[in-house]
Amino acid sequence: MKIGILGTGMVAQALAAKLSAIGHQIMIGTRDVDKTMERSETDAYGNPPFSEWRENHSKVKLENFSDAAAFGEVVINATSGGASLMALQMAGHDHLKGKILIDVANPLDFSEGMPPTLLVCNSDSLAEQIQRTLPDTKVVKTLNTLNAHLMVDPNKVGKGDHHIFVSGNDQAAKDKVVGYLKDWFGWKHIIDLGDISTARGTEMLMPIWVRLMGKLGTPMFNFKIVQ
Amino acid sequence: MKIGILGTGMVAQALAAKLSAIGHQIMIGTRDVDKTMERSETDAYGNPPFSEWRENHSKVKLENFSDAAAFGEVVINATSGGASLMALQMAGHDHLKGKILIDVANPLDFSEGMPPTLLVCNSDSLAEQIQRTLPDTKVVKTLNTLNAHLMVDPNKVGKGDHHIFVSGNDQAAKDKVVGYLKDWFGWKHIIDLGDISTARGTEMLMPIWVRLMGKLGTPMFNFKIVQ
User: Fold this and answer.
1) Range(s) of the domain holding residue B137
2) Of A133, B89, B148, B150, which is the most exposed, with the fewest CB atoms less than 10 Å away?
């Protein structure tokens, strides 16, 4: 399948690497290809620059947001939450029309340092903002509640016995995404929370997630719903 | 131990019943004892009125907020979150001075119907508001992430293999509360998240909790952190 991934950070890289490895055609979209390739510093988490990652993933294409959105049969928003709406604007609403947009971003605000707060929450969410901005796109929120390495390999902790969630207004689109999550990454436990407004719940998991990461000293953990 | 419990709802009842059953002296505090005993309607969740509960728990004392706060060596805030600051005002700050206040409330706002939003979140929390209001009291936030019946009996789901959290500025007070949670209710998995501001994380779990309750059709579930 042709998949467009918006964003060049560690989440986009983890998704692109895995999806490319299992045989999908991947195009990553960025604001400015030259600038992305010129960057030589590590990111805030100490990850190497994109160009270095690219050397080991030469099958993954890198173009601008618009090209990647047009390329993908399915498009994934893996930009940082604060930049998502602008990135989707640059991607071109027409390129996303009728398509599934898998939104894995969180609206984290690091402007006041650590731990981050949320740019939007409680009576709204980033996923709802995106769905309102793209009324003809089927936005499905998922995978935003855990670390990128776990997103693509749930068996890395607890033998995969933990949960992720999906939120979205289009049931058929959500069902397709649930299928992708199983096929692509091996997810076994996926809870369909309901319409896109239920993404408020998953985005608002971030405040405890960042504190747990600090406490546990690792981002390699996930939530399991025990009944 | 003498324990004061502020609030007469289902959370206060569950805590009072359990703590009384294991031999503690319990005084529940309410705004107006006569009005509490006169109430004859079920609550929003279909629970019977307090007077009916009281018939089966006659050892539990019922007095006003002030009496219950003065009575308790440890005091538990189990009022509804929107009323907590007023209840603590009526309880009398002097009656809470130097004591541990276990805060199990959530600042839920039902004014716009279901699902509720939060009255405070993101850059503040109810627990922090309470700690600022009561600077000489050791506020420890805990148990606010699950149903009342599970609070007092974690083995009711998953053989108790799931987590609760504590937040607070006073390490000795938190350690004592962790001991209480183990001794009183049998909690095995308790994560100390850090200072009182980490209660933002647990209070912000409510939005996904209420949606999970709707989806699963039961409040009898809890979060497990899988590593």
Assistant:
1) 2-216
2) B89
